[in-house]
Amino acid sequence: MRSTRALMMILVSLLAGVMAIVFAARWLNEQTAMATRKVAVASVDLDLGQQITAEHFRMVDWPSGSVPDGAFSDPDQLTDRVTRINLLQNEPVLEAKLAPKGTRGGLSAVIAEGKRAITVRVNDVVGVAGFALPGNYVDVIVSTKDESKDKDKQNISKIVLEKILVLAVGEEAGRDDTKPKVVKAVTLEVTPEQAEALDLARSVGQLSLVLRNQIDTAPVATQGITKDVLLGLEQPVAAAPKPVVKVRHVVRRVVVAPPAKECVEVFNGRSRSEQCF
To answer: Cα(181)–Cα(135) distance, rounded to whole angstroms?
Structure first.
């Protein structure tokens, strides 16, 4: 009798435990479903300037508290959009990573507003041995003849453009590869004024690219170097010193006039006197 009672208590305890586990799991699933949101992620690797189709992304559950800014919850909003940068598989598709609406695919989709793309011919030396890759910044040097002097013309090299973004090398615009690529042409992103200067520079001399650090944004004003300066036959022209502003303090003395005196005439018999206060 006692053993039967104990067995019944054990069975009831096991049943209660199983029911508690089932209810707890159901509650956790409901809470998880309520705390998530559908977010579009890339289903395959997407290249820069690629037009997005329905096969390129999928919707996944994302914790509501950590949804990235600019994420898409409506798949219709991604149709025919173009990527501005490379996207990896399972990476969230964000508005900041896409070109503006109405942009067509290709390199033109990644050109910043107000900028232009211009291509210059390079070789393994001019192109920094292939290390000038898309996404890097370069300075442009032109080597030409110095016609500013009365004597015979001599060669001069001068930096004419600084911190120019490399959009593409050859026919590739991807920015994930770090392996150097020796190509015959490099496409640069410039302003309209820089495009004019670059077009003139390559018509009057030979161009060279100088690779620079991506976080180095300080401009450098150089005078250029000529053959005589390079060989030590002439002193380089020193840059004009910055004007020194001197602050002059002027101290003015304020003279306070003494207060006016009041005088009184005093008559004492036949004598007369005057007293002032």
So the answer is: 14
Q: Give bridge partners of residue 118 from the DSSP assignment.
A: 188
Rg (C-alpha) for the chain, rounded Å, is 40
- Alpha carbons 213 and 163: distance in angstroms, whole number: 9
* Least confident interval from 67-71, 157-161, 222-226, 269-273: 269-273
Give residue 244's pLDDT.
Answer: 58
Rounded average pLDDT over 67-74: 87
Structural class in CATH, domain 38-107: alpha beta
Q: Are 75 and 59 a contacting pair, CB within 8 Å?
A: yes
- Measured at the CA of 126, the angle between CA 121 and CA 131, to 5 degrees, comes to 105
Instruction: Return the SS3 of 153.
Output: coil
Distance of CA 2 to the CA centre of its chain: 80
**Cβ contact 60:38 at 8 Å:** yes
Round to whole Å and give the CA distance between 166 and 179.
15
Distance CA 201, CA 93 (A): 41
How far apart (Å, rounded) are the C-alpha atoms in residues 251 and 26?
85
Cα angle, residue 95 at apex, residues 31 and 49 outer, rounded to 5° = 130
Quickly count: other Cβ atoms within 10 Å of residue 28's Cβ: 10
Enter the DSSP assignment of 95. G
- Biggest CA–CA distance in the chain, Å, is 154
CB 81 within 8 A of CB 104: no
Copy the structure tokens of residue 70.
């600019």
